[in-house]
């Protein structure tokens, strides 16, 4: 299983990658594997400011629909437009082209509360 060390993680299986004053958010390789073939994403929170752990959208696979949670507080600046036509990018490239949203972080120190790759991996092994 792929757990890149440069990212931060949540117990709900989202990842966060900080680039300057913005962050990219997606779901982990473990999450996409558990969900199976992803067929649709519903993210209607563009432009909204949400707190950490609030729901920012849903992800639909063949057999289930799951909520998506904000890893850290911030304003949603962008939704990955590639996923409209190719939601399966979340399956094939969850840490790259399969990112979900771009966020302007409200408080960068919140990132320090997230799990490291090592901590996230330990949760999966438990």
Task: Explain what the structure shows.
The protein has 126 residues and is an alpha+beta fold. Helix content is 19%, strand content 35%. It has helices at 29-35, 82-85, 89-92, 117-125; strands at 8-9, 14-19, 22-27, 38-42, 49-50, 55-61, 65-69, 74-79, 101-105. The relative contact order is 0.26.
Strand order of the largest sheet: 1-2-3-9-8-5
> What fraction, in percent, of the residue positions are helical?
10-25%
CATH structural fold name = OB fold (Dihydrolipoamide Acetyltransferase, E2P)
What is the rounded Rg?
A: 13 Å
Classify the secondary structure makeup into a structural class: alpha+beta
- Total strand segments: 9
**How would you describe the oligomerization state of the chains in this entry?**
single chain
CATH superfamily: RNA polymerase II/Efflux pump adaptor protein, barrel-sandwich hybrid domain
Domain count: 1
Overall outline: globular
Mean of residue pLDDT?
96
Strand content: 25-35%
Task: Show the helix and strand layout.
Layout: E1 8-9, E2 14-19, E3 22-27, H1 29-35, E4 38-42, E5 49-50, E6 55-61, E7 65-69, E8 74-79, H2 82-85, H3 89-92, E9 101-105, H4 117-125
Antiparallel strand pairs: 1-2, 2-3, 3-9, 4-6, 5-8, 6-7, 8-9
